[in-house]
């Protein structure tokens, strides 16, 4: 084990080195507006979805990298879905369409699958899980999705498809708990189908292949007990003894042997010995070998090994029969047990001279090798075991044979061969717990070295779980953590590294665990947590004589990066400066010092340091971005002429760099900001002509549009884009560019332009699947412009012409909500009825809509039925409570209504909460609790100020309550606020009417 530890110690740093560049590269690029992304994510995680969307939209307009654009779009989709649960599908599909082959798309597909499954839409769930499986998912996540997909097909009674998916789990992920669960589930399916032979096969495979799996315990002992209850020995002895006196000699001889064997099985050794001797006496001069063999077992069980060896020897004959082979084997074993290794080896040698194949050869050679291993002759042990492996196939006890061979190789310092043997032993599964753990660890180590981390991790974990307080267990815990790290599952990795440090603070891998824990936190973006383990690593670090990698410098850089990410720029600069003396890191440290100056608004020092980087490190990979950043700093500071000069240098010196296209685009921005619109238009056009493969094409076209609008010129941006697409048919997907252009216009609230762009997209696209989505976007833009009839027309087009599209359900829902808002309750009810009957995907939303329409029609009992039906489905239950509160209000049960509304207002931050807060106040008002009502009306503005319609309704309610308590002055003041904030609106008219 010490030898193995030395080998593991030599390679540990190399294994961690495989992953360290990932985070460093994440800090290499300047991100001009990355705070918007970070802020948006923090807001999302804090549940502030409305505000998060604003930051994501800000970042999306000018992302720095495709990866960050993807993350911003992903979190925006999640935030939108949290705000508008009834439009989750629309938001998810928008992300998936643009990023179809990403892990995030897979997660969204799985979310849709879960939602469908909870709504009993199992076919839809199967489809969503299936689409997720088409993507490259992490192994552990893929296993879960396979199982969920199988469950969906089980619910659909499609057991064939379910078997296929479960078989994939077992075949593609055989060394996981999920594989055992899949086998068990398949066995259960076969049992349900009354296919008992197939069920038995599954359960046997489970028991043999996964003896330690938790699910194996559920198989029970039913398959084994029946084989052992056939030996009714006591009844056999009683029957034979009662008849013995009436038997002839031949029959007595046979009865004596049966009773001797029965007593032997029952452990009555004295009786067994007496009847064996009776048999020998009755057959004097005949073949009594079997009786001597039985006596050998009696003496063996009495631990009189030299007598046992003699008895077994009396069972040996010149015949080549099974009894002779067995007798020789047990003669040697009992010589060994009596301490006579010489006689044991001699007996095994005799056996090998007589028999080289057939029964008992494997057992003899195994015990023979075991004797050599015990006396330290590992070469002789290996020779005997190799004879077995090469000449006796298939083996009866492969696990024991390969385990002993692995131990012999290990003791003989043949480590690779030892690992191979342990792999064979682990596959066999028939070994002692200690050897099994060693074999399991070695197998996991081989997998780890071959980068099969997803397979190695659960094996390491199982070794630690079986022996947590042992040296082997501590090593297994570390490598389990490192496996997670290499799989980029940094959360589980951090938990295990931290546990290693707590449990084994002075362990062999403690320093590596601290370093790796710092990296794990760093990769998760938990920069404040990353600093302490990196510092602890540095406190105990001692540089080896030969350093392949400077871990101490890397740790200092990561501390500096963490300080940078936490906006502690002064401390970050201090740590970066500590790395300037080392050639390998000096350019990166210089680059980050410049970035720190820039982020701290010390632009002069930032420009100076970026220039130092360019001159001192001409071959640095950061030189292009450093030069670009200088131009960008001048751009942001308003020195547009200098910015143009700097950007032009980037293009001249690095024309093929990714920064060249971005520099050209920002030349256009500089001219635009300087109001030199002709020059800006020309610069933007240069992006299209010089960098047709850039991801800034749409931004450049938008720049042309804005410049032309600012200059009072005709807008020819669409013509420019069409000309570009005609000349560059391979420059990205033309269809996707057109759609993205239209979407970008919608996102910046250029609604009329967005409508025109989406209509142009519909005219030219060949992608029929995206037309319904384009129509949804057109409807959304019309509604933003207050063009409700045009929005309704777009929704009806989807419903009538794209009936089978998923967007058809969304269109029905939105159209129904529009009718609700307009007070057209019969029309709204028709749309929601079609939605409920056409698909189960949005059954919850349909029932909520039907309930609201029924309240509008005065059908209160019917409304209650709809809301109660929705309560039994998966969905936003606050909508159910809001509906039931409105039912209580309509029945004048104002106290019950107020209770419903208060519960929602206290738990919701969205528009549902705003409406509930208003209705809570209204319920108090109807109970003449005007003081309480005024307080609650005021809370609408305080807690839900973003929802201006409900704020206006609350102010109108405040006017009524103030008038009711005789406070006309306050009522008139509120009326003036309404007229100022909502001029020429229905709210202003209603306020005037209340104050007459």
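-> sequence recovered:
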């Amino acid at each position: 084990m010490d030898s193995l530890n030395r080998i593991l110690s030599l390679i540990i740093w190399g294994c961690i080195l495989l992953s360290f560049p990932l985070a460093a590269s994440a800090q290499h690029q300047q991100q001009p507006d990355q705070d918007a992304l970070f802020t948006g994510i923090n807001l999302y995680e804090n549940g502030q979805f409305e505000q998060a969307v604003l930051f994501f939209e800000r970042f999306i307009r000018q992302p720095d990298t495709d990866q960050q654009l993807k993350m911003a779009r992903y979190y925006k989709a999640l935030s939108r879905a949290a705000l508008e649960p009834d439009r989750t599908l629309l938001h998810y599909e928008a992300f998936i369409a643009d990023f179809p082959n990403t892990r995030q798309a897979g997660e969204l597909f799985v979310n849709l699958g879960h939602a469908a499954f909870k709504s009993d839409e199992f076919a839809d769930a199967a489809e969503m899980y299936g689409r997720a499986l088409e993507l490259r998912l992490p192994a552990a996540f893929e296993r879960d999705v396979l199982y969920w997909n199988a469950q969906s097909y089980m619910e659909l009674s499609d057991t064939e498809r379910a078997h296929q998916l479960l078989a994939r789990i077992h075949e593609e992920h055989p060394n996981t708990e999920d594989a055992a669960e899949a086998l068990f589930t398949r066995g259960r399916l076969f049992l349900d189908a009354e296919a008992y032979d197939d069920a038995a096969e599954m359960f046997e495979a489970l028991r043999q292949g996964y003896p330690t799996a938790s699910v194996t315990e559920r198989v029970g002992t039913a398959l084994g007990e029946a084989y052992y209850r056939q030996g009714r020995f006591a009844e056999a002895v009683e029957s034979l003894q009662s008849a013995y006196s009436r038997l002839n000699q031949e029959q007595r001889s046979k009865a004596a042997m049966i009773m001797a064997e029965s007593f032997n099985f029952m452990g009555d050794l004295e009786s067994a010995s007496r009847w064996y001797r009776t048999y020998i006496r009755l057959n004097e001069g005949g073949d009594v070998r079997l009786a001597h063999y039985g006596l050998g077992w009696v003496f063996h069980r009495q631990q009189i090994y030299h007598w046992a060896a003699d008895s077994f020897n009396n069972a040996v004959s010149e015949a080549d029969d099974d009894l002779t082979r067995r007798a020789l084997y047990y003669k040697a074993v009992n010589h060994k047990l009596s301490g006579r290794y010489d006689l044991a080896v001699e007996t095994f040698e005799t056996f090998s001279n007589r028999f080289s194949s057939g029964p008992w050869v494997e057992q003899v050679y195994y015990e023979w090798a075991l004797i050599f291993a015990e006396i330290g002759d590992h070469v002789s042990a290996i020779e005997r075991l190799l004879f077995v492996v090469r000449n006796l196939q298939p083996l009866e006890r492969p696990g024991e044979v390969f385990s002993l061979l692995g131990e012999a190789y290990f003791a003989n310092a043949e480590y690779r061969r030892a690992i191979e043997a342990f792999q064979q032993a682990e596959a066999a599964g028939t070994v002692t717990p200690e050897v099994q753990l060693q074999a399991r660890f070695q197998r996991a180590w081989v997998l780890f070295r071959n980068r099969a981390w997803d397979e190695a991790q659960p094996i390491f974990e199982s070794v630690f779980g079986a022996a947590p307080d042992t040296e082997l267990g501590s090593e297994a815990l570390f490598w389990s953590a490192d496996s997670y790290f290499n799989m980029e599952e940094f959360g589980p990795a951090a938990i295990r590294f931290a546990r290693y440090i707590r449990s084994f603070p002075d362990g062999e891998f403690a320093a590596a665990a601290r370093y790796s824990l710092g990296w794990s936190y760093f990769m998760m973006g938990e920069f404040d947590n990353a600093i302490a383990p990196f510092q602890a690593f540095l406190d105990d670090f001692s540089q080896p004589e030969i350093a392949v990698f400077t871990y101490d410098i890397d740790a200092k850089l990561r501390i500096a990066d963490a300080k940078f990410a936490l906006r502690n720029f002064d401390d970050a600069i201090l740590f970066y400066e500590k790395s300037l003396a080392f050639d390998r890191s000096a350019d990166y440290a210089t680059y980050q010092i410049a970035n720190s100056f820039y982020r701290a608004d010390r632009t002069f020092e930032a420009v100076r340091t970026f220039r130092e980087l360019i001159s001192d490190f001409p071959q640095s990979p950061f030189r292009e971005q450093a030069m670009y950043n200088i131009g960008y700093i001048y751009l942001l500071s308003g020195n547009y002429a200098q910015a143009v000069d700097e950007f032009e240098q980037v293009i001249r010196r690095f024309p093929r760099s990714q920064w060249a296209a971005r520099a050209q685009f920002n030349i256009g921005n500089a001219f635009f900001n300087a109001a030199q619109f002709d020059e800006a238009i020309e610069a933007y056009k240069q992006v299209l002509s010089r960098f047709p493969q850039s991801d800034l094409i749409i931004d450049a076209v938008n720049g042309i549009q804005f410049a032309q609008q600012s200059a009072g010129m005709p807008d020819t941006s669409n013509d420019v884009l069409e000309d570009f697409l005609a000349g560059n048919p391979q420059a990205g997907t033309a269809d996707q560019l057109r759609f993205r252009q239209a979407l970008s216009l919608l996102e910046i609230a250029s609604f009329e332009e967005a409508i025109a762009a989406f209509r142009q997209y519909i005219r030219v696209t060949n992608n029929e699947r995206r037309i319904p989505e384009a129509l949804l976007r057109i409807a959304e833009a019309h509604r933003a412009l207050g063009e409700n009839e045009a929005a309704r027309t777009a929704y009806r087009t989807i419903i009538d012409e794209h009936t089978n599209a998923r967007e058809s359900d969304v269109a029905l829902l939105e159209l129904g909500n529009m009718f609700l808002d307009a007070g057209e309750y019969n029309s709204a009810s028709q749309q929601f009825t079609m939605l409920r009957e056409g698909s189960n995907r949005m059954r919850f939303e349909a029932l909520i809509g039907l309930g609201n329409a029924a309240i509008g029609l005065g059908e209160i009992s019917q409304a209650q039925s709809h809301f109660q039906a929705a309560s039994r489905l998966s969905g936003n239950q606050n909508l159910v409570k809001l509906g039931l509160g409105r039912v209580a209000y309509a029945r004048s049960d104002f106290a019950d209504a107020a209770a419903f509304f208060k519960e929602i207002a206290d738990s919701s931050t969205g528009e549902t909460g705003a409406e509930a807060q208003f209705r809570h106040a209204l319920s108090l008002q109807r109970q003449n609790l005007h003081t309480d009502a005024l307080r609650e009306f005021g809370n609408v503005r305080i807690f839900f100020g973003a929802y201006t319609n409900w704020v206006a309704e609350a102010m109108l309610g405040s006017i009524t309550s103030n008038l009711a308590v005789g406070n006309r002055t306050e009522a008139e003041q509120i009326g003036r606020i309404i007229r100022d904030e909502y001029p020429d609106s229905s709210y202003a008219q209603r306020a005037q009417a209340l104050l007459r």
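The mean pLDDT is 84.
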